[in-house]
Specification:
By secondary structure, the protein is α+β, with helices and mostly antiparallel strands. The protein has 5 domains: 4-52, Helix hairpin bin (Helix Hairpins, Orthogonal Bundle); 72-308, DNA ligase/mRNA capping enzyme (D-amino Acid Aminotransferase, Chain A, domain 1), CATH 3.30.470.30; 314-395, Beta Barrel (OB fold (Dihydrolipoamide Acetyltransferase, E2P)); 429-571, 5' to 3' exonuclease, C-terminal subdomain (DNA polymerase, domain 1); 592-658, 3-Layer(aba) Sandwich (Rossmann fold). Helices cover 36% and strands 20% of the residues. The strands form 5 sheets. Strands 12, 13, 14, 15, 16, 17 and 18 form a 7-stranded antiparallel β-sheet that branches. α1 (4-24) packs antiparallel against α2 and α16 (501-507) crosses α17 (515-524). The longest helix has 21 residues, at 4-24. It starts with a helix and ends with a helix. The structure holds 2-(butylsulfanyl)adenosine.
């Protein structure tokens, strides 16, 4: 068992990572309730062992760091966060603490909108600045972006001399769904929840992007007001509303905790029928004078608290596992569930992401499982209920063949995903084509995603090599494609036939093989046949190629559909040799060396540079294909391997002789 200090350090590390994912990348790895659980554990331990509280603990800080790309805005007052509570007992404890300090306890209960906090400044009724909360002290200037949000007026109803307010920018559920569908269509990663979508949309350097995402806002706090005297939250909300600012209408004046608790329960049930996400209720002391009596800690005011809703979880049966192939060839298992009402929708499927997860959670067909929605949106299986098994449940294994094209499914060492390696697999063809034709690949001008989509729709292309069979008449069937553009496109396709081999290798979209690696590979493998005939060990001879890349290359070129495609490309006249890849001139041209042991007269690096300057090549591993092993003192296993393979071993003086000249 970890000691309290060790556990605190662990939690700090984890929370730091999650804070970064959440606040800076807008891309959380865990659900909000899991985050809250970690935070509560830390708070609890720190309370019990205050000697281990570290100054960099997230409990001691106010919030996320500001991104550097927007101009910084320093807030007039620190913009604090709220302490969380999770139960009626917690609420009562909060109430008791307040009762110790103040006499008149009236509360305002409001919905806790799940978005991101913004601070707006109006001068003489005109919006002059908008900033994110950032770390509470300094935020980001997002004025131009906020001005695109329709519900935020750029002009108040009256010319209040100065008004600074705080509110929440959020993305309505409908817009969140629309945006994610659009992202998925483009093959981009969807947002995990509306909060991240709102943050990601607001923190865009290009305000046009923000404008195209229908964000909205609710204002809930007056930070500073040079105008009418406002004495409590009720008046504040009414005033904000009267000035035309968007105020959430669901607020309720409450006289005691039981009324507040009722309010929390009402919205815990109704939250799923609201058009925006809420993750709890905020309870605020109404009177501003009494708030001032209570004050704040460095992190949160003592006069307010957030009651967080638990994530809804339900048990249901896993009926089957469906296997599909994604756009990049990844084979994805999806759980088919007995439909269950959860967090406002009926859930009947949940992605299981990969087979490693299925194994680690020991998920079996026929199991009763607990489901919830990650970020309250995306259904996921939390765990199975093995105690409810009757022995008829079936274990799940990765498929051996692709469900879309029947090619072998492989898993590359060290990767979680199983993949179909057939570049022309119908499930991946569209993405393969888009990439093949793109600028860093074969650079076919005019062959963009829209044209490719139509080529597939019109059944003009079933595999990449079909591109080279297209005629101008075929293309003229496509929308907005006149004779001239069709002709130009054919010219571009034809021109791409002369691309050097490294472009073709890049264009094949082999996992882990980008443009740079392709170029390095074609220095050693100068024709496509060299690639087809190479073993993973041969690929490893290229200095920059590690096991993962070597395995991926070998798997790609072993795939029969891929070989067939290469043959077809060749018969269509596509170049498959590296024209620039001729061996360099020099005394050691074409010779390959492996260095081992310590040389007396130079370092291994210097020896390598010398060999290369004379046109030779240095690689890391010994195989039959190399010419010499240069062995200094204390040689390693490479020396032995060279002996076994009968490769000429040079000692230092022989080597120096060879490089003299
Ligand atoms: S009051 C000093 N009221 O919840 C207190 N916050 O966990 C200022 N939030 O950072 C916050 N709805 O982003 C308040 N009706 C509401 C809210 C609300 C959502 C957010 C806000 C805050 C976070 C605290």
């Amino acid at each position: 068992m970890a000691s309290p200090e060790q556990r605190i350090n662990e939690l700090l590390k984890e929370l730091k990572q999650h804070n970064y994912q959440y606040y800076v990348l807008d891309d959380p790895l865990i659900s909000d309730s899991e985050y809250d659980r970690l935070m509560q554990e830390l708070l609890h331990l720190e309370k019990e062992y205050p000697q281990f509280i570290r100054s960099d603990s997230p409990t001691q800080r106010v919030g996320g760091e500001a991104l550097e790309k927007f101009a910084p805005v320093t807030h007039r007052y620190p913009q604090l966060s709220l302490d969380n509570v999770f139960s009626l007992a917690d609420l009562e404890e909060f109430d008791r603490r307040i009762a110790r300090a103040v006499f008149n306890i009236d509360y305002m209960a409001e919905l806790k909108i799940d978005g991101l906090s913004v601070i707006l400044i109006y001068e003489h009724g005109k919006l002059i600045n908008a900033a994110t909360r950032g770390n509470g002290i300094t935020g980001e200037d997002v004025t131009r972006n906020v001005k695109t949000i329709k519900s935020i007026p750029s002009q108040l109803k009256t010319a209040v001399p100065r008004l600074e307010v705080r509110g929440e920018v959020y993305m309505p559920k409908k817009e969140f769904q629309r945006l994610n569908e659009e992202k998925e269509e483009k093959g981009e990663k969807p947002f995990a929840n509306p909060r991240n979508a709102a943050a990601g949309s607001l923190r865009q350097l290009d305000p046009d992007i923000t404008a195209n995402r229908a964000l909205a806002a609710f204002i809930y706090d007056i930070i500073y007001c040079e105008g009418p005297l406002i004495e409590n939250q009720q008046q504040a909300l009414q005033f904000l509303e009267s000035e035309g600012l968007p105020v959430n209408p669901e607020y309720l004046f409450c006289r005691n905790i039981s009324e507040i608790y009722q309010y929390t329960q009402k919205y815990q049930n109704e939250r799923y029928s609201l058009p925006y996400e809420i993750d709890g209720v905020v309870i605020k002391l109404n009177s501003f004078r009494e708030r001032a009596e209570l004050g704040a800690t460095s992190k949160s005011p003592r006069w307010a608290v957030a009651y967080k809703f638990p994530a809804e979880e339900k048990a249901t049966r896993l009926l089957d596992i469906e296997i599909s192939v994604g756009r990049t060839g990844v084979v994805v298992p999806t759980a088919i569930l007995e439909p269950v009402a959860l967090a406002g929708t009926t859930v009947s499927r949940a992605s299981l992401h990969n087979f490693a997860l299925v194994r680690s959670k020991d998920i079996r067909i026929g199991d009763m499982v607990i489901v919830r929605k990650a970020g309250d949106i995306i259904p996921e299986i939390v765990r199975t209920l093995p105690e409810q098994r009757n022995g008829e449940e079936k274990e799940v294994t990765p498929p051996l063949f692709c469900p879309a094209c029947n090619s072998a499914v492989i898993q590359i060492e060290g990767e979680v995903a199983h993949r179909c390696e057939n570049i022309n697999c119908p499930a991946r063809l569209k993405e393969s084509l888009i990439f093949f034709a793109s600028r860093p690949a074969m650079d076919i001008d005019g062959m963009g995603p829209a044209v490719i989509e139509q080529l597939l729709e019109h059944k003009l292309v079933f595999a990449i090599d079909d591109l080279y069979q297209l005629k101008a008449e075929d293309l003229m069937q496509l929308e907005r494609m006149g004779a001239k553009s069709a002709d130009n496109l054919i010219k571009a396709i034809t021109a791409s036939k002369d691309m050097p081999l490294h472009r073709l290798i890049t264009a094949m979209g082999i996992r882990h093989v980008g443009a740079k690696t392709a170029r390095q590979l074609t220095e050693r493998f100068v024709s496509i046949e060299d690639f087809i005939n190479a073993s993973p060990e041969d690929f490893l001879e290229v200095a920059e190629v590690g096991e993962k890349i070597a395995e991926s290359l070998a798997a790609f070129f072993a795939e029969p559909h891929n070989r067939e495609m290469i043959k077809n490309l060749q018969s269509s006249g596509v170049n498959t040799v590296e024209k620039q890849g001729r061996p360099k001139e020099g005394a050691l041209a074409g010779k390959t060396f492996v260095l081992t042991g310590t040389l007396g007269s130079m370092t291994r690096q210097e020896a390598g540079e010398k060999i290369e300057s004379l046109g030779g090549k240095v690689i890391n591993s010994v195989s039959k294909k190399i010419d010499f092993v240069v062995s200094g003192s204390d040689p390693g296993s490479k020396y032995q391997k060279a002996q076994e393979l009968g490769i000429r071993v040079l000692d230092e003086s022989e080597f120096l002789e060879m490089i003299k000249s």
